[in-house]
Amino acid sequence: MVPQPIAGQPGLVRVDTTWGTIEPMQLAAGVRTVGEPDVIAHLEGGLPVVDSRTSDFYRASTIPGASSVPYAEAAARIDELAEDEPTVFFCNGPQCGQSPIAIRSLLQAGYPPERILYYRGGLHDWMTLGLPVIPGKPGAGA
Questions:
Q1: DSSP letter (8 states) at residue 66
Q2: Domain 32-128 in this protein, CATH class
Q3: Are 91 and 54 in contact (CB under 8 A)?
Q4: What are 85-97's pLDDT values in tens digits?
Q5: Which residues, other chains included, contact 44 with Cβ-Cβ below 8 Å and sequence gap of 6+?
Q6: Global pTM value
């Protein structure tokens, strides 16, 4: 699902296009979809970015500065999320349903939509644009 580096070919990745279902650009009223420049600015501003993929994916690679709140735990961990600032949520990419599930569960639990930013491109687009990834830190929550 996540692009894989090609050995001996710096900057090149292999992309699997055979999985998932394309997610909509707009997930819900009040939730804003953002792109890479927005995510970068968010991180540079010290604002929260959440990797909503399962822990095994997070540990393998994530966006530097992202914390981990797996999609199935999002509503249960709502109290760990920022109260006064928007949070970017991402998963594997435009055809991954993990962050959409997390976002919908947060909305159902009463989390304000204006505090949710959806990075639809996820790690797929991040990596194909050559942006940096790092291994996730075990136990790194929101």
A1: -
A2: alpha beta
A3: no
A4: 999 999 999 999 9
A5: none
A6: 0.91
